[in-house]
Amino acid sequence: MQRKWLVMAAASLFFCFATAATFTSLGVVLFTMVTELHWTNAAAGVSFSLLGLTCGLSSPLPAIMMKWIGTRWTIVAGGAVLTAAFALAAVSQHQWQFFIATGLMGIGFTLCANVPGIYLIATWFPASSARMIGFYFMAGAAGGIFGPPVVEAVVELSGSWRANWLVMSLTAALISGFSAFAIRDVIRVEKVGDVIQARATRGVQSAGGAEWTSRQAVLTRQFLIIALAMLVIQTGVTTVHSVLVTHLAKLGATRAFGAFAMSIVAFTGTLTKGAAGALSEHLSPRLLLLSGAALQCLALLSLGFADTHLIAYAFAVVFGAGWGASWLSCHVLLLKYFGTSAAAGVVSTATVITTAATLGPLFAGMMADATGSFTPIFYVFAALLAAIVLGVSLMPPPQRAGTLQPLPPDEAQVSMTEAARHA
Question: Model-level pTM?
């Protein structure tokens, strides 16, 4: 097998596993842990928030470490951190121990997924990087689909949430070993900017052909509205991942059904991202964003009283579809409005803003402890999404300072593969 395919396999496998073992399945195992250890919902929310917060705060680390020790050992280091984090989670007796474990999981995820993987693929597949990066993101999405039922099966068969973390620790160690064997740098990182350049979109021009700087772009009202939309969308998704199993259990569903509903959300979201990317070449991405946010709003309203399997299924499908359409459309709009020159800075700034989404699970837990239900937080997010729909619908295209004519609203389209590199 050619080395580049080994690199692709190792990077994709790690992205799939990291997604499956952390963000998308933590809510499943937390349901059992909270019950057995008599934790509050707020404590469960803190653990989920720490996972996302450390993942966001450690985002500069991969590029720095890739310069120091190379991409291969950066990914292996991430695997070692995950191995230790899962092992600590398995033996945790107190909340503070598990909080440290979930914080380490966020750092490990950052080091082994996304940034290093994209750099490897962009440098090993220079002629087909857009397509191969698309496959890489599909591998990550697959982790969200298979992670919840796999974790549920491990907990059910073993009868212990500790066994799940031990299995994850062993798996992380094995994938780290495979990565150490398979991964090589075809181009060594000489400076942090090399990593940013590999991630930047090429060939995307802003609407009307005008070029923006990152500073100009982030000071516009349009950027602020889109960034806030991304924050609300991501906060809702993060919160749903953290509480869906527990919420459905309170309404009479089993843990296994909750895990299956999580998989449906991920599966539908993945399919919709692909469809939305293709549709954005023919339809207004702003219309897709409005439609996606509206679907999420309706889904969250229905989740409050999802006391039958049919309603829960409907929620999972509609919410996943809304998530896929709105999230991808936000990235398409940023790239369409501000173009190649500002792409890396604009998307990075928006991503930093969405780090605040990690507080969603904490607020949800506190509200559930105070009211006895997660339903109020769903209605809060539904109201925020309705506000986003209103704000985006009234948003004109951006106009650079010193120009007389506004940019055409929806004429320049961005391909799915280019937008997916930032989604």
Answer: 0.80
